[in-house]
Amino acid sequence: xxxxxxxxxxxxxxxxxxxxxxxxxxxxxxxxxxxxxxxxxxxxxxxxxxxxxxxxxxxxxxxxxxxxxxxxxxxxxxxxxxxxxxxxxxxxxxxxxxxxxxxxxxxxxxxxxxxxxxxxxxxxxxxxxxxxxxxxxxxxxxxxxxxxxxxxxxxxxxxxxxxxxxxxxxxxxxxxxxxxxxxxxxxxxxxxxxxxxxxxxxxxxxxxxxxxxxxxxxxxxxx
Length: 223
Hints:
This protein has six helices and nine strands, in the order E-E-E-H-H-E-H-E-H-E-E-H-E-E-H. It is an alpha/beta fold. The strands form two sheets. Strands 6-5-4-7-8 form a five-stranded parallel sheet. A four-stranded antiparallel sheet has the order 1-2-3-9, with no helix packed on it. The relative contact order is 0.17.
């Protein structure tokens, strides 16, 4: 298992991905509840728009994603404001989350930092006002390049793309200030219609991992 290292895993099925015509094995870890696909080999399918959604990213979406709206609603319910907070967004996409947080919390451009792999998306982010943006992989090596700690780190629909989720989460926590806030959203890996039809893009080399509520509840103290 790429998260807990256990070999107590169950093979669920084999698939042929239409995104790259390669074979993958779909496993379930009985130890930590993670579902994952192997081989865990990253492929940059974003700039060439092999997955259709990235065509929209490169144009710059106007509609705020539902998960972003939900996070904002929860923060407001808990009386948590991001105003004057130093923020790092991992996987900024087209910068739509920056637009949403700027509107809701009046965050400043100077306090907003981002990391993004897709160079076309970075161009859109810069047009939207994200000045502090880096084109890097997010792994433990990033700690050598970022000499800062953040009040909040946001990872919206990013964790499911990772091939090393444990290192990803460890790196997030090392970049957080004491009592900092890590906000993660992921697709629900137990969506009922998975039984009937594969969700486009919810397979490798786009998504390698599937999570549900049980995973985070069981592993909260380990992350």
